[in-house]
Amino acid sequence: MATAIQCRDLRKTYDGKVEAVRGLNLEIAAGECFGLLGPNGAGKTTTIEILEGLLAPTSGQVTILGQTWKDNARELREVMGISLQETRLSEKLTVLETIKLFSGFYRQPRAAIDVLEQMQLGEKADSWVGKLSGGQRQRLAVATALVGNPKILFLDEPTTGLDPQSRRQLWDIIRCFQQAGGTVLLTTHYMDEAERLCDRLAIVDHGQVIADGTPSDLIERLGGHHMVEFQVSGSSNGDGIEVWRALPGVESVRPDNGLVCLNVREPHLTIPALLDAVDKQGNHLLHLTTRQASLEDVFVRLTGRHLRED
Amino acid sequence: MTVAQQVPPTRVPPTRSGTPPRNGRWSGFNHLLMARLLELKREPEVIFWVFGFPVLLALGLGIAFRNKPADITPVAIVAGPGADDALSLIQKSPRSSSIHATVVAEPEALQGFRLGKYDLVIVPDGTNSFQYRYDPARPESVLSRAEVDDALQSAAGRKDPLPTTAVASSEPGSRYIDFLIPGLLGMNLMNSGMWGIGFALVDMRQRKLLKRFVGTPMRRSDLLLALTSSRLVLMVIEIVLLLGFGVLAFHMRVLGSVFTILLLTTIGAISFGGLGLLTASRAQKIESVSGLMNLVMMPMWIFSGVFFSSERFPAMLQPFIKLLPLTALNDALRATILQGASLGAQSGRLLVLVLWGGISFALALRWFRWT
Fold first, then answer.
1. What ipTM score was computed for the predicted complex, to two decimals?
2. Which of 132-191 (A) contact B at CB < 8 A?
3. Does A234 share its domain with A206?
4. pTM here?
């Protein structure tokens, strides 16, 4: 499949000091939905804005559909739609006027009213932008990106701050665009969003890709699909960890906020052994849960930190 | 590849509103201009500051400084011997109609003089001679001394060796309101150019809207052109309103041609637009650009002869004052509107405006930050 977006050894240094992106490589195929996942300040926005041609990289190459920003900026802008992390559109224009304004910039845009219908904003066509809810504004922002009939859609944290229903509506819109053959690059710090929406993703931390692949690939790389979390009475943390690691089926152990987290391959072997071990120590369990491993666990495993530390 | 055609059937909107539009070279500009004008129309403050405020200012100042009928000079005569003589002399004089004299006790006379109730105090010394108390710092006090002295002398029998006559003259064109309206027009062009372009751009930058626009195939020059054009549309309305108001309410006479006035104001608006663009070229926040704007405009509010003639400043400052764009615009507008001067006679002022506009535009385009 053809490559839609490619960047090699991308670097961006602000004011000669702050290294926001340090040698980042990406290759995104046409028709793919690709996610950049990482905590705030990881360099996701800087990366996506360089790919969008809004920021110049300090060094490195970017090609979009085989063309570079230097030589084909105008042509590239015709085939891509973007939604920035935060754009406040003019509050005193109506929804339809806003879409028409954006459609005026493209040689062959879609009909504004069609885009509004698709975004379920048809009823709001004549409302002022200032009167829209957060979810409606975000859909309008995506509508301004879609009205140019793009081949590539760049979305920087499209669902941040939205209620669950609005998020799901946006996911539908993104999937629909992708099913029609479009390529999507989005940034997010929501794990569930990345897992549901993205064909492939790259986990970004400190301006570098620290892991990439399909969501299930990444989880597979943890070694086990299951997480066992528990807490014991009178816990002796220090040597305790060694005891848990020795249990059958345990791939890794980490203490997390008073709990012990085990990444396990076969919980039906690990759990009875765990109960025995606790018994032998003369302690008892205060808490025990098991769940499927998630991208969050991948991230914590790779960085030792949670994705959203708030 | 058309996304809409490949969308799965369930998601295709049931009706398609005709064929998608194909946009030409000026589509972006036209859409931007229309959007800008719509936004301005929906902003009640803009309507007030651009249109209402200058007219109200002209009305207020025009009334406050209107040419009043010849003033009656209020004069106090200190009661005592000779006071009645003074009063009867004044009443006998040919000037009696313009002098209102009253006999009052000394403390009351001095108190009234201090408060501005009387312009002059006459102190009779009882031996048929009078002393005047006046304040040399108050023009009306100086005038009334001369007038009262004249009245007393001629009533007492003075014969003027040289016969003179005087004719009152307050022609339209020489009144304060005539001076004021072109100045207000110039000031308004400056304010709306600076705010309308500079402020609007920083606002769009702060809202990340500039960045969003740059992410589309929009031509950047189209945005600047559309902003400037929207000001020109407002400008024409401003001129018609302010000059029309002057003509209708104050019987002002516009001597210059409409074409010359339009050309001057257009050059002025573009020149201040360039200055606004330069001021806004890097500022990220509304607060910081507001300070900068005031810094740029303040000297012109003071020196450029909006409310009073710039000739009042010391000769040493005049070369600098003449180089300010608002001075050039105000002087040019006054010469054209009040004296009917031709464009050719104003080449120096036009050059000042064009240079300010041209240099600011060039620098602004170099420094302008879109993101």
1. 0.87
2. 144, 146, 148-151, 176-177, 179-182
3. no
4. 0.78
Q: Is the pLDDT of residue B71 over 70?
A: no
Asked if residue A179 and residue A201 are part of one domain, the reply reads: yes
Contacts of A20 (CB under 8 A, 6+ apart): A12, A13, A14, A43, A46, A207
Which of B3, B8, B218 lies at the smallest CB-CB distance from A105? Answer: B218
> From the list A77, A114, A151, which residue is nearest B216 (CB)?
A77
Which residues on A lie below 8 Å from B20 (Cβ)?
108-111, 149
**Residue B102 bridge partners (DSSP):** B76
Assess whether A209 and A268 both reside in one domain. no
A30 interfaces chain B, CB cutoff of 8 Å:
no
- Cβ separation B39–A92 shorter than 8 A: yes
Which residues on A lie below 8 Å from B35 (Cβ)?
Answer: 90, 93, 97, 101
A100 touches chain B (CB under 8 A): yes
CATH of the domain at A123: 3.40.50.300
Which chain B residue lies closest to A120 (C-alpha atoms)? B13
Q: Are residues A201 and A227 in the same domain?
A: no
Sheet holding A59-64, edge to edge: A18-29, A3-14, A59-64
**In angstroms, rounded to a whole number, what is the distance separating the alpha carbons of residues B115 and B141?**
12
* Six token digits for residue B197: 């372009």
Along the 310 residues of chain A, how does pLDDT read in single tens digits?
Answer: 689 999 999 999 998 888 999 999 999 999 999 999 988 888 999 999 999 999 999 999 999 999 999 999 999 999 999 999 888 999 999 999 999 999 999 999 999 999 999 999 999 999 999 999 989 999 999 999 999 999 999 999 998 888 899 899 999 999 999 999 999 999 988 888 888 899 999 999 999 999 999 988 888 887 777 889 988 887 555 556 788 888 888 888 888 777 888 888 888 889 999 888 888 888 888 889 998 888 888 888 888 777 665 4
Specify the number of domains making up chain A.
2
Tens-digit pLDDT profile for residues B200-235: 999 999 999 999 999 999 998 899 889 989 989 988
Kindly list the distances between the CA atom of residue A242 and the CA atoms of A233, A236, A245, A250, B144, in Å, as whole numbers in the listed order. 17, 11, 5, 11, 109
Domain that holds residue A248: 223-292
Residues A162 and A271 in one domain: no
A43 and A179 co-located in one domain: yes
Eight-class DSSP state of A123: G
Q: Which residue of chain B comes nearest to A73, CA vs CA?
A: B217
CA distance A13 to chain B (A): 16
Q: Which residues of B110-140 are buried (b: 16+ CB within 10 A; e: fewer)?
A: bebbeeeebbbbbbbeeeeebebbbbeeeeb
A47 lies in the same domain as A86: yes
Is residue A297 a part of any domain in this protein? no
CA nearest neighbour of B202 among B266, B293, B271:
B293
Residue B20 pLDDT level (bands cut at 50, 70, 90): low
Q: CB distance from A69 to chain B under 8 Å?
A: no
Same domain, A76 and A153: yes
Q: Where are the domains of chain B?
A: 73-155, 172-367
A18, containing H or E segment: strand A18-29
Q: May I ask the CATH class of domain B73-155? A: alpha beta
Q: Is A263 on the interface with B (CB under 8 A)?
A: no
Distance (Å) from the C-alpha of residue B117 to the closest C-alpha of chain A? 55
CB contact under 8 A, A103 and B21: yes
Domain boundary among A169, A197, A219: A219
| DSSP secondary structure, B9-70, as one string | GGGS-S---SSPP---TTHHHHHHHHHHHHHHHT-HHHHIIIIIHHHHHHHHHHHHT---SS
A vs B, Cβ pairs < 8 A, gives 122
Is A54 touching B (CB cutoff 8 A)? yes
